[in-house]
Amino acid sequence: MPDLTVTVDDRTLEATWTDDAPETxxxxxxxxxxxxxxxxxxxxxxxxxxxxxxxxxxxxxxxxGAIAYWPAGSKxxxxxGETPASHDGEPRAAAPVTVVALLEDASALGALxxxxxxxxERSE
Length: 124
Prior knowledge:
By secondary structure, the chain is mostly beta strands. Helices cover about 10% and strands about 45% of the residues. The protein has one helix at about 20-30; strands spanning about 5-10, 10-15, 35-40, 45-50, 60, 65-70, 75-80, 90-105, 115-120. This is Cyclophilin TM1367-like domain-containing protein.
């Protein structure tokens, strides 16, 4: 069963927590629901979100479907494909991010044009 429901404009996606970042996951989970106006950077959407969480297993290359927190910029990011920083087709953040969850299927995000309203909440 998925842990999160992620709504991007009219698209509803499901995601599951990873085990890589327990402090960041706990901080995000306690802040839910969260929402923001996503800014698009390649095949990434990010929005402002201040969490009290240190970088955990932070990295620039992330898997497709990653939901990650960028502590230095206080942003929550969704990755589904290449960004301007990508090498060899993998999603890549501009700076190290902490991956907290994975979208089960991010393919619906491929049709986005520009930014979008993003909301994360606990799955029911």
